[in-house]
Amino acid sequence: MSAGSSPVVILGVSRSGTTLLKEMLDxxxxxxxxxxxxxxxxxxxxxxxxxxxxxxxxxxxxxxRVREWGVDPEAxxxxxxxxxxxxxxxxxxxxxxxxACGKVRFGDKTPSYMQHLDLLERAxxxxxxxxxxxxxxxxxxxxxxxxxxxxxxxxxxxxxxxFACLWDEEVRGARRFGAGPAAGRYVELRYEDLVxxxxxxxxxxxxxxxxxxxxxxxxxHSDFRADPREDHPRLADPPTxxxxxxxxxxxxADVERFEAIAGxxxxxxxxxxxxxxxxxxxxxxxxxxxxxxxxxRVTFRAGLAVVRRSPAWRARQAYLRRExxxxxxxxxxxxx
Length: 336
Description:
By secondary structure, the chain is an alpha/beta fold. It contains 15 helices and five strands. It has a five-stranded parallel beta sheet with strand order 2-3-1-4-5, sandwiched between helices. The longest helix is centred in the last third of the chain and has 29 residues, at about 280-310. The radius of gyration is 20 Å and the shape is globular. Residues about 330-335 have low confidence and may be disordered.
């Protein structure tokens, strides 16, 4: 697959600028990137690499997000071979969305897929990956300010140190992925650079994607949809540097604890550290936080995989459809 026709996948830890980059690229006349999908791990756990056509089309019809995209599962049946691969089904869904938008390429931006990088290669063969990285301490501030929390995901961090574990694990994992399976199809972009020099950085990204740069990409804020996505209020404004500053907004003791967990990676990425040598108590707390975070992740993902293969999954989708109808289109489930 040539770079000019390959899917585009935006990688990044939650609150690292993935939505900003998505809004910019989605203004392309060629590329369509829908709202966060969430459903790829669900479909993979239920159907695997060689899904039954009828069964997976039926499941597509149960997913609130697919309906939100305006994609009719029965209409895409004709796009799928009689004996499809998982990638065939995924492409049919995303291509139907892109064509409905009048575009020829498609992409994805779902931060939770940072925990499913191997699945992305199965879902989007030949994809080009743009990994946007933000100083983890500023990303943590943004995360903690969110008014909405993911449903059914108690493994997600609920505090500063949990987010430090998440940021460290996911950024390291994506960089390994970019140096391994996705080598040659992966590029990194600093959030701080994008908001400071949006046009030049976006031109570089477009060149990597073999996507024509268009000035409209930087006017995403001018037609920001009236729907107030409560956790992205700044999308109504042009790119703005310095909206968070850990130096003044996080107490020094908490900065030290954060850096005891993620300091080496911050330093590796060129971010300054306030405490290059955390005290023993901070290092001990870091070990405990890492162990607890990993245990929650492993337990949650194992349990979720079992639920997804059971009748309870269908009941959950019905519940989500009812709840999403009452809350509006921006409240999709992050796990399922």
